[in-house]
Amino acid sequence: MPRYCFTLQVRPDRMDEYVERHRAVWPEMLDALAETGWRNYSLFLRDDGLLVGYVESDDLTAAQAAMARTEVNARWQAEMAPFFTGINGGAPDQGFVVLREVFNLDQQRHESN
């Protein structure tokens, strides 16, 4: 299963509210993510607002496109956009920076056996 890690920057003055919003993500949003191929999805927030996301998906681009076609995602992204810097008015799920994976323990252990 391909793994993806990405970053975004949460506005420092909105971090508490951002965390609170994610304590009770709308059930229809959770369902849409699962139905469009987002698996083992987690978000981590550093004290300075750096948000690091991790997700597994057969194809992240296809999963993003499938989410973009859902009404619930349009509502969620519109509500979440003001929490971020550096996305130039776009949707957060289209403005994140995907990081290149440089090491995976399980993969290297498997390849060495």
TrEMBL record:
<protein>
    <submittedName>
        <fullName>L-rhamnose mutarotase</fullName>
    </submittedName>
</protein>
<dbReference type="Pfam" id="PF05336">
    <property type="entry name" value="rhaM"/>
</dbReference>
<dbReference type="InterPro" id="IPR011008">
    <property type="entry name" value="Dimeric_a/b-barrel"/>
</dbReference>
<dbReference type="InterPro" id="IPR008000">
    <property type="entry name" value="Rham/fucose_mutarotase"/>
</dbReference>
